Amino acid sequence: MRPYPAELEGQITLRDGTQLQVRPIRPDDLEREKAFFHALSERSRFQRFMHAITDLSPELLRRFVSPDYERELALVALHDDRFVAVARYAPTDSPVRAEFALVVADAWQRKGVGRALLERIAAAARRAGFRALCGSILDSNTEMLELTRRLGFVPERREGAELIVVKPLS
User: Fold this and answer.
1) 27/15 Cα distance (integer angstroms)
2) Residue 81 contacts residue 53 (beta carbons within 8 Å)
3) Of 57, 112, 113, 142, which residue is most buried, by most CB within 10 angstroms?
4) What whole-number distance in Å separates Cα of residue 55 and Cα of residue 113?
5) What range does the domain containing 101 cover?
6) Domains identified in the chain, total number
7) In a domain, 19, yes or no
8) What's the whole-model pTM score?
9) What is the CATH number of the domain that holds 77?
10) In this structure, how many other beta carbons lie within 10 angstroms of the beta carbon of residue 32?
11) Tens-place pLDDT, residues 60-97
12) Within a domain: residue 1?
């Protein structure tokens, strides 16, 4: 397993001038991840997990904060030492394709956090050797559909109420 990728640490400046720390998630973030999840609205949790979910199992929480940095990555944006967004990628069945997930705290949506993290995740996936980044987005998640469209993702196929979008990383 690759060690913690400290080279991915940095900052982002939002449109309103707010500075956020960005870094890879770490095992000691378990309580931050748990608090972040519980602070999300039902709507945000539903759009991220694509079904009603009220809690994360201890196993899933541990998995979320302990990625195998060789194959997957999760970046967090923090303000006052609290998560305000989490973006991640993980490999799919294809060795050249990764799937992303992104969730932004309700109070931080529409401020540029999601865009900044998704751009960083895409760049990290490209450096890791992936040639495409894809994601499943609910039809009702118009904000995420618009964000991915602006970042160059294109619809690939539909699976029920989900649209699969993909972006070449070459």
Assistant:
1) 30
2) no
3) 113
4) 24
5) 6-168
6) 1
7) yes
8) 0.94
9) 3.40.630.30
10) 18
11) 999 999 999 989 999 999 999 999 999 999 999 999 99
12) no
